[in-house]
Structure formats: C-alpha cells, structure tokens
Design a protein that fits this description.
The protein is an alpha/beta fold. The protein is 35% helix and 15% strand.
Length: 497
Amino acid sequence: MKQKPLFTNKESKALDSLATKELGFHEQTLMGMAALSVFHANEDLWKTAESIWILSGSGGNGGDGYALAHTLFQEGYSVRCFATSPNKNEAGKFYEALVSKTIGAIGSVDDFYETWEEAEEDSVLLVDALLGTGFQNPLSEELTELIDTINESDVFFYRLSLDTASGWNPYLLGEKDSKAHSFVFADSIEELGTRKWENIGFIYEKDSIIPRYYESIGFPVRSHLNNVTFSKRYYLEADPENAIAIIKRKNKDHKYSAGSALFYGGAEGMEGAILLSEQAFSRLGGGISKISSPSLKISSLILKEDLSKMAKTSSLAETLEDPFLKKTKTIVVGPGLTQYPNDLSGWEVPEDFRLVLDAGAIPTKGSALPKGNQILLTPHVGELNRMTGITHHSVQAAYDTLVDFCPKNNVYVLLKSFVSLLVCPDGSSYVWESPNPKLATMGTGDLLSGILARYLSLDLSIPEAVHLALSLLDHSKQLEEPYPSAHQILKSLVEII
C-alpha cells in the first residue's frame, strides 16, 4: 500500500529529541533546513506578495518563522516580523537575533495592529508561526483577539501556517465554549519534518480540507518507526492505477477464482440497496455471487433484471447454512436492513472468511458481535456514535474510541466520512483524506460494500482491500455530472476497467 507514517505531537517531540540528543543534529541547523524547505516549496507564492508579514510566537514554531524571514529577506523579498513575546527557544533566539541585525526591529502585537490598520486590502501574505503542534492550552484573550483579527481581515490575501494552524485543536471540536474554536484559517499548512496526526481533517470551510504540504528536513523518520515510539498511524495515498489493474479479470480466471461472494440484506421496500451492492461486485469483475434477503420480492426483482443471477428469500440463519457459503469466503451483510440481525450475535465466522457488516448490520451499543479474524464494520459517523454510545466530532476522537474497540472485539472498523479512518485489531490505523462530494448521495455506501467484497474475494487483506476500494471510488471525481447517482458512479467505474 502507498502509506506514509503520521506522528502525534508527542511522537514528533520524541523524534526531535532523537535527532538532537542522540544523533547529534543541532536544532539551529534543523530550523534553518525547515526554513529553506518552506522557502523553496513556495517560491511562486512569495512572488505574488507586495509584502510578507511573519507573526512569531515564543517557541520553536516562532523560531521557524524567524529563520524563514531571514531567508526571504536575503532573497530580496519585502518582509516584516512581529512577535507576541521574545523567543524562549535556544535556536529560535539565534534566528530572532539574526533577524534583528539584518531586517531590523521586530514589532510587537501593538505594532502589528497599527501597521495592519494602515495596510491596503489584499496586499499582505501572512505567515503564521505563532503556536506549534505542542500547544494544547486554552488561548489567552490576546491570542484569541489576534487570531480573530487575522481571520476576519481583508488585508491578508493568503495565510500560510507553519506546522499547524495556530490555535487548531481537533479535540476541542464540539465544545460549547466558542473560544475553543479560534484558530487561524490557513490557506495552506507546511508540515515540517513529520506529517502531523493532529492536523488530519483540518477544515474551516464546509466542503474543503485545507491543503497541507510535507517538507522533509532530514528528520530520522525511519529510525523512529518501532512499536515503542510509533503508534502505527498511517496516511494512505491514492493508488488508482493499481486499483484498476488488480480488479481486472485474468484470462485464466474461472467463476470462483475471479471472486465469489454472498450478499444478505434488502428488507421489504429496500431491496435496491442489496441489489446495488451485489451489482458493484459482479459488474466490476466478480465471478459468481448470490443474494439472500428477507424480502419476498427479491427473486422476482433480480430475475426480472438478470436471469443468470441467484437469489433466495430467507432468514439470515438459513443463509448462514446455505451450501453456497462453503464455496465462497466473502460475505456482505446489511445493505437494506433496518436493524441488526440477532443471528449475527456471537456467530462463529468460519476460518478465512471475510465478513463485511454495513448499514443495518452495524450494531447498536451492547449488541454482541460475531466472532472471527476478518470482520469489517463500515459505519458512517452517526452509526459509529450509535455503535459506541459516544459522540465524535473529529477523526482523532473517533480513533481514541476505536483503538480500544477494535482489539477488544477483534474487528476492523472503517469510518466513512470526508476523512475515512480504518482501525485494525492490532492497533494500526490508516487515514484516507480525499473528500469526494460526489459520494454524498444515497446508495454510495452500498456501492462501497460491493467494491470491498470484490477486492476481498481476491484474498487481499482488509487494509489492502479498503485502500484499493477507496482508490477506485476516487475515480468518480472525474465525472462531469455534478451530482451523479450511485448507479451512474458504478457505470463510470465499469467503463474505466
């Protein structure tokens, strides 16, 4: 899989300590490397600014700001520096002094306000170096006012944050105190040295995740990937070409080697959900499949559409005794069901079987889960809240719940949202951050369960199947139709492969 490690604030600090104390890096050198990385990554952006203002805090993040200011000034850009207070970081003090000697006096917060009042609209590019990733305390009134001014001002045509947007704390989302939500509305974030877990899902506009760019500065990232110092959180990158290549049938395939699956769902009046899930499986190359449903209409609906299909009206208990089950290793339960089937409670899933629970098969809190080694639950946020009895306002909060829930119940959970999160029984987790508004329509969850079944039927692991399924669905972004139906999305995926 294409994956990149994500580090928590605590892990990033430990990595910084490893670099400076054990490997002998000078913090001053790392700070300079960070500044150079940001400078070169944004050379086209700097050229658009009449003036660049850098607002620094008293810690290492502020030191990064001073180091960047020094580089920009030496390269001929118009730079002004303002600070909330003198820098306390030893490397930061060096660059603060360097800026004072070369650029001139560093302005205070009062100086910032005075200069801001006289500035013209859209004339300033602001670099936010106020607060680093380690800042967890409530904002002071002074900082809250400063950040609110930055956000509301029409002077700044662009806001670039170093490492994280100052004041951003995903764990405060949903808190009643409005002051907890004051953070810089960055247009982009430059992550320095490590990709930051706490930055995942940074969003202040309803339909857009703010872009983050990772800048390598020589941190010993690979030296830090062990079970003691790393919590096995990864960022998934799209792999669209591989998603297509793997799903295509091979010339030597027969109906079972091409993939087989059993689908159960579709209560009376909701048969379309399980039909769509099975269609995704079969039309994307699955060799053989069967639908079982509590609906009395299921056979007539399916055979009316395709005489080659297999369908049966039955209870889940009867379905689990179906001889077809012995010929397949992939089962999807839930699309089109209205409640959690009691027959799932405590069911011993046969060894090597892959069970996907979706929609109506997502349990409520207290329901007994089936038992097996490859069980995947695919809730959306509301279903996750119902399943755990906890309300979640961020992907980080969902992780905190699931990192206990998944090992305890020996299940994988894929949270479906604008940021998708897969948490595994072994404690590892994977984040998919690729918002796709075209998937915000009825039926796309059923579609995903069928695509997951397609990849799982090829004996892929659950993390691999999730990665490839999400990568394949990402192709729907290319559809010209602004609000495609789930059937239109499926049709486009079929055409691609």
